Structure formats: C-alpha cells, structure tokens
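Handover notes (outgoing to incoming on-call)

Open items:
1. Profilin: sequence verified, structure written out, both below. Nothing else pending on this one.
2. Nothing else urgent.
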Amino acid sequence: MSWQTYVDEHLLCDIDGQHLTAAAIMGHDGSVWAQSTSFPQFKPEEINSIINDFNEPGSLAPTGLHLGGTKYMVIQGEPGAVIRGKKGSGGITVKKTGMALIFGIYDEPMTPGQCNMVVERLGDYLIEQGM
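Profilin structure tokens:
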C-alpha cells in the first residue's frame, strides 16, 4: 500500500460523518511521504521543533506547536509518543512511530478524541509493522 493511500483512506476516513481537515505522513527527517492537498505549507524549523519535543518532551509547551504559520497550544499528550495541540474549535495530533510522524488536523464538528483515535490507530498499526 502506498503512503498516499494511508493518508487518503485511513487518515481522511469518515468517522460518524466527520473527517480530518488535513493529514500527512513524514519521515523523521521532515521529508513528506504523503499528504492531503489541504495540509499546510510548513517550514522545516516547525518540523524540527516537533521532532525535538518528542526527544525532549515539554519543549513545545512554552512556545506552542507551530505548523504552517498556525500556532497550537500544546495540551496533554504522551511524552515521546504523541503531541496534541488545540487552536480555537480545532486542533492537531502528531504520533511518532519508529520511522515516521503521523499528522492529523481537525476542526469542529470533529472532536479531539476522534482525531486522536484516527491518528494514533494508524500510528500504532505502523509501529506493529516495524515502521
């Protein structure tokens, strides 16, 4: 299965009539493996900050998580495994696997829990596959 298929069929799947507004899968080096057309144009330093927070949990909390110029307030996650952010009625979930970062961005009426479930379920599956 191609990485784009994971984005299109798994991350952008329909959950109770809702779906993510944007999604992507990237390597730990910041290279994009696949992304939705709606995924924001990001800066390399934004991805570097996210990767750094996985290595040093809590480093994003004071400044927020920035992606494509949008600032998300960092909320509870799982240190070294999941970063969650909130902005207004939407937010972001980033799951780290052995080789990749899985990004999901949502807006209401999708809930944070629905976003977390979609992103983390794919991430857990990829971890089981050695990815």
